[in-house]
Design goal:
The chain is built from ten helices and no strands. It has one domain. About 30% of the residues are buried. It is mostly helical. The protein is globular and about 55 Å long. The termini are far apart. The N terminus is likely disordered.
């Protein structure tokens, strides 16, 4: 069976870079909207949020800005600046991992875990998602010379950390706790399925990186569910929450 690359050997990333730029803009806009409407609806009071959470939010906004800027730079042909910004973003991703895990633990300590999540689920969620995000980012960097892999994995990494935005957009308190996370996963998958549709249109087949990203997304959700069911995870979450 022919691969996507073999289907159109002359296919260049410049052919459809505008698609990836627009997709990155939609993803960034949706995440920002999800958090902004949550605050505007009064579910969070910014003045009462710990400084660490604000820093975490600013760093995540920084990543979204980098994602959009990198796609714009690739489309404009400014590959030198694209590379420089890419290497600089390594430190940003490191900060995202540290702050994401720290923010999750702080929420447990302050008893601010969303009521539709158990403490064990929330602990698994906050650790697994940012770790998977960093792993996808690292893989994308390692494959930076394979542009079709690189840009799809960068989008895939960002889709993985879209979950908190959907958690604020969906009426999670009205959804069965066992179904809610998978509904979020389905909505996240829409963006990867959009890439799959695009792949078939321009290359004649779905690119392996798109399938890899989709498998990673579903694997992350399955791993979170499995870890949350472990007594050891519940014990760890309780220890953090009680300061034991």
């Amino acid at each position: 069976m022919a691969t996507a690359a073999a289907a159109h050997p002359s296919y260049s990333y410049t052919t459809d870079q505008q698609f990836f730029l627009r997709l990155s803009q939609v993803i960034a806009g949706l995440i920002v909207f999800g958090f902004a409407q949550w605050a505007l609806r009064g579910f969070v009071k910014p003045t009462q949020v710990p400084l660490l959470i604000h820093v975490h939010g600013v760093v995540m906004l920084g990543w979204l800005a980098v994602l959009v800027a990198q796609n714009a730079l690739a489309g404009s042909g400014n590959l030198a600046l694209h590379r420089h910004l890419g290497w600089a973003s390594v430190a940003l991703v490191g900060a995202i991992v540290v702050l994401g895990i720290s923010a999750g633990r702080m929420a447990l300590q302050l008893h601010r875990v969303p009521p539709f999540f158990s403490d064990a689920f929330f602990l698994a969620l906050t650790h697994v998602e940012v770790t998977a995000f960093a792993a996808m980012f690292a893989t994308a960097v390692a494959l930076r010379r394979q542009t079709q892999w690189h840009r799809r994995l960068m989008i895939g990494a960002t889709v993985i950390v879209m979950e908190p935005a959907f958690g604020r957009l969906l009426p999670m308190e009205l959804i069965d706790p066992g179904l809610g996370p998978w509904l979020e996963a389905a909505l996240q998958a829409v963006f990867l399925l959009a890439i799959a549709r695009h792949d078939r249109k321009v290359m004649g087949a779905v690119h392996p990186a798109t399938l890899f990203s989709l498998a990673a997304l579903l694997g992350v959700h399955a791993l979170i569910q499995a870890l949350a069911a472990l007594p050891a995870m519940a014990a760890a979450a309780q220890a953090i929450a009680t300061g034991a």
